[in-house]
C-alpha cells in the first residue's frame, strides 16, 4: 500500500506542480496592464476548414517578424502569445491556401480562422507534413502523418481504401504477411502498437482476418503514426502510437459521400446540428459477398460478411466549452448453416469535453469504453456449444495543454484504465450437448498514469521536448493462481496455488517512463534529431500463429507475466531540397525490450487453464535504418521508403537459448508510391513493394509414427529459414466526373489492379504428406492471392 | 481448437478470396539421423511391441532405415522384466513376461549405438463404448446424402482423461493426417458422448465401421495433439513448424543424440457396426 501511495503522490506532484506554475503565470482576470517588461497578449482560437468546419489538426499560425508560431492541437485549437503590437499572422495548412491577416493586438484576442482547400484534389500532397519544412523544424522524430485523401489515392486491394495498408507503406512499418492482421513497427509485435480511434484503444484492427482494416476511410480525418520519441502523454504499448481522429462532421451544410465497390459499399452523411455550433457524422459500410452466396443453392445457409459503423457528434456549448461524442461498432460474421458460427468485432465509445480555461490553457477530459469480443460455436445438436471471449476497458483521463509562451508548451495529465479480460467461457447450447461449462479465470486490472511534458524551443536552432510518465499497473483479479515449475521449453506444471483478491493484487508494477526528443537545426532546410523513449506495456496479445487470428486473447500482466519494457534511441537527419519540393530523411534506431513473450513448441493458447505453463519470457532487440524520400510538388508526387532492420529475441527454452529472428523480422522493406496528375480529372497511381521473406522454421528430417510422417528439426532450432522474398506492383486510375457548377453531386471512378504481374507471393511455406502418396513429403507454398486482382469502385459526394 | 481456425480459413475461400497452395522445390538443411521410436503396450493381453528406426532427410521418401541389434528391456511397477526380441529388422516384441494392465506403469530401456534411452508410460482407466449407430442423413450443410456411423458412450467423471479414436472402414484404418483424432475431457468431463460422427464420406450398404477407443496418458495426448498440429500445419493460421515432444530420453542429459517418437501405454475398447 505504501508504495502505491508514494507513486500516486508522485503522480499528484507531477500534475500539481505545473498547475501551480500555471496559476502563477496566468494573466489576472483583467487584461494585463503593461508591466514594463513582459507585457503579453495571446491570440487563440480554432483553425478550421472553410467548407466543412472540420478542425485542422496541425495547422499553423506564424508571425514572420518575430519568428514565432504555434500549431493547432488535435481539436484545432491554437494559442500564440506575443508582446502587444501590430503583426501579420500567416495561417497555413498543407493542401490549403494560406491566409494572411494583419492584426493590432492590444489585448488578448480569441480569433478563429477558416482555411480553404487549394482546388485540384489530384495534385494533393500525399503524405502531409504539417507546414513546409515541418519535418525539419518540429522536434518530433519517427513521426508520419497520413490524411484521409492520401489513403484513398494509393491503389487499394479490391478497391477498398485501407488505412492500415497505407500505414504499411511508411518507413519502419512492415507486416508478417499479405492479409495478416495488424502491422509491425520497428521490429515490434502487432500488439505493441497503441491504436487509438478518437482516443479509444482498438484491440483488433482487422476485418476478414486481416485483409482489410476496421477503419472506414470516409470517417477518418487524420492519421498520425509515432514510432520514436513518443510523447509522455501516451503509453501502454512498446513500439508505436497510431493516432486516428475521426471527422467531426460538416458544420456548414448537409453533405454525404460514399462508394460502391467490389467488396463493400460505404455511405457517410455529415450535417450541422446547429450551424457553426455543432455537427454530426455517421459513416457505415458493409461487405456483400454473402449476398452472392445466397444465390448459390448450396451456400444459401452460409453467411460471411463484415460491417462497421462510425458516428460522431460535437456541440459547442459556449466560447469555452465543446463536447464530442464518438462511437464505433464493427463486426465480422461467419456462419456455415447450423454447423458453425463465428463473429468478432470492436466497439468503442468516447465522450470528450474541451474546455478553454483561458487563451493559454486548454483542457480535454475524456471518458471512454472499448471492447473487443468474439463468439464461436455450434448452435445446435450434440456438438452444440457457445464460446465467448472479450477484453473490455473503461477509461477516464484529463489532459491539459498550457501555452506558456511561443517558446514553451507544457502538457500534463492523468488517466486510469479499468480492464476486464475474459479469455474464454464455453457453455453447452442444449442438454444433450457433449460439452460442459468451462469458464477460464477472468482477470481485472487497473492502469494508472500521470505525465508531464514540455516542448521548448531555445531559439531557431535548438528545441527539445522532454517528459516523464509515471504508471502503475495492478492486477486485481480474484481467484486461485499458480506458480509454474519444470524444464524451460517444455510444458510447466502449476504448483503452489494461492488465492488472490481484494487487498492482495496478483501483481503490482510501478514504472517511470522518461521521454525525450531534441532537434538541432543545421540550416534552414536541414536538421539533426534525437529521440529516446522508455515504454512499458502491461497487456499482451497471446498469439502463437504466424499471423494473429481473431480468436487470440489479450491478457494482463500477472505474477508470472511481467510488464514488457522497451528503451528506444533514434537519431535522424532531415533535409529538404528545392524549397521543400523534396523531403528526405534518414533515421536510425535501436530498441531493447524485455519480458517478451514467446511460446513452447506446440503451445495451446486457446481455452487453456494453464496457459502460463506454456509461456516463455525473454529479451528482444531491434535496430535498423530508415530512408525516406518524398516529392511534394508537381504533377508527380509520391515517396520512396526503405528500411534495413533486424528484430531478434533471446528466450531461455527456445532455440537452445540463442538469439533468433522474430517471425516478423524482415531485413529489407521497400515501398515506392507514385501519384501522377494527368489532368484535373484523371490521376494515376502506383505502388511497388519489396520485402525480405519472414523467418520461419523448416524441418531438416522426418520420422514415421504409426504411418504418419512427422517433421523434425534437430536441436529444436527456431526460425532457421526465410520464406521467399515478397514483391508486388499495384496500379490505379482515378477519373473524376466533369464538375458542373449547378450540380453538387460529384462522382469518380477508381480502377485498380492489385498484384499486376500476378506473382504468387509466399505467405508461408508448409510441410505435409502428399495426399495421394502418403509416404512422400512435400513443401507447399501458400499464396494469399494467386493472381492479379482488378477492381472498380464508384465514389461520390454531394 | 485448431480445427476452428481451419474452418475460419475455409471461410475465406467462401468469400471468393481464395488463396492458393502449390508444391515448391526447397532445399532444407541436412541433419544427423536420430533414433525414432514407435511402440506401445496395451491392456489387450499382447506383449509390448516397438519399432526402431532412424530419422531421415525430410524429402527422402524411402522406408525409414531400421535400427537393428538394439537391446530393449521393459519393466513394470511390480518388478517384472521383459527383454524384447527383434522379430523383424527394427521390430522388437516382448516375450509376455510383462503385460499391460490398467493402473500399471512401464519403463522401456533402449540401448543402441552406445547410447541408452529411457521411456516411461502408464495405462490409465477407461470408459466403455455403448454402441455405434448407423444413421441415414439427408443432404445438408455438412452431410452428403447417405449412411453415417455415430459413437455413443459415457465419459468418466473427473477431469484428466484423454482419448484417441481410431476408426476403420472395412478393416482399413483412416490414417491420413486429418484423421488423427485426440481429445481431452476438459470440455466434456463426465458428459455422455452421444452422436459423435465417425466418418466424413457417406457409407454404403455392407460397409463396416470399427472403432477403437484408446484411453491414453496425459503426456501422450500432448504428443499426439502436437503431432496433429504439425502434420496439418498449412494455411493462414498455421504456426511456425516446431518439434513434437517425445518421452524417449537419452539417459546422458545434454547429449546431442536425442530421440524422437513415443512409447505409449493405453487401453483399447472396440465396437463396430455394419450398414444393412
TrEMBL record, chain A:
This is TonB-dependent receptor. Keywords: Cell outer membrane, Membrane, Receptor, Signal. Residues 1-22 form the signal peptide. It comes from the Bacteria. InterPro entries: Beta-barrel_TonB_sf, CarboxyPept-like_regulatory, Plug_dom, Plug_dom_sf. Its main location: membrane. GO terms for cellular component: cell outer membrane. It is found in: Cell outer membrane. Residues 161-236 form the TonB-dependent receptor plug domain.
TrEMBL record, chain B:
Keywords: Signal. The keyword Signal applies. This is DUF4249 domain-containing protein. Residues 1-20 form the signal peptide. It comes from Hymenobacter montanus. InterPro entries: DUF4249 (IPR025345). It holds the Pfam family DUF4249.
